[in-house]
Amino acid sequence: MGSHAPAVWAARHRGQSSPSKTEAVTMCSLVISTNLRKDTIPDNFCTEATKLLADVLDIAPKYILVQVCPDQMMTVAGSDGHCANLNLSGVGSVGPEKNRKLAPKLSEFIHKQLHIPKDRFHVNIFDIPKSFCVWNGQIFD
């Protein structure tokens, strides 16, 4: 954060606890589309995914959104067996080094939690410019 960043953060996030001096304001959203039925998704899946992303990407959980869209009509390699498409978008939280660290951990998490083979889901990672993301009524930049 720049020298004026804490004041800017405070002005934009009134009523929110301010980040520590070392906490950069970053965020990420993980949206998972899958053909799994809703009743097969573990009840704590979103909470556990949030913990994983917070740990691996070093983001405060309050800046993480996880959404699961079950019961989708979809195929991978022409087969409608269990599959998923994951879109992870981040502001200041993704990049080549973090993506390399995240890829095996997120893949293993999806495989273990949802029982989808690793070759039956794709993970797309997008780095979003701060000025293209709104949170708490303000853009991030």
From TrEMBL:
Superkingdom of origin:
Eukaryota
One Pfam annotation reads: MIF
Tell me which UniProt keywords the record has, alphabetically. Cytokine, Isomerase, Secreted
Tell me, what is one Gene Ontology molecular-function annotation carried by this entry? cytokine activity
Entry EC no(s): 5.3.2.1, 5.3.3.12
Q: Which InterPro entries does this entry report, sorted A to Z? A: Macrophage_inhib_fac, Tautomerase/MIF_sf
GO annotations of cellular component type: extracellular space
Listed under catalytic activity are:
L-dopachrome = 5,6-dihydroxyindole-2-carboxylate; 3-phenylpyruvate = enol-phenylpyruvate
Localization of this protein: Secreted
> Chief subcellular site?
secreted
PANTHER family per UniProt:
D-DOPACHROME DECARBOXYLASE (PTHR11954), MACROPHAGE MIGRATION INHIBITORY FACTOR (PTHR11954:SF6)
The record's similarity note reads: Belongs to the MIF family.
- What name appears for this protein in its UniProt entry? L-dopachrome isomerase
Query: What is the protein's species of origin?
Result: Elysia chlorotica
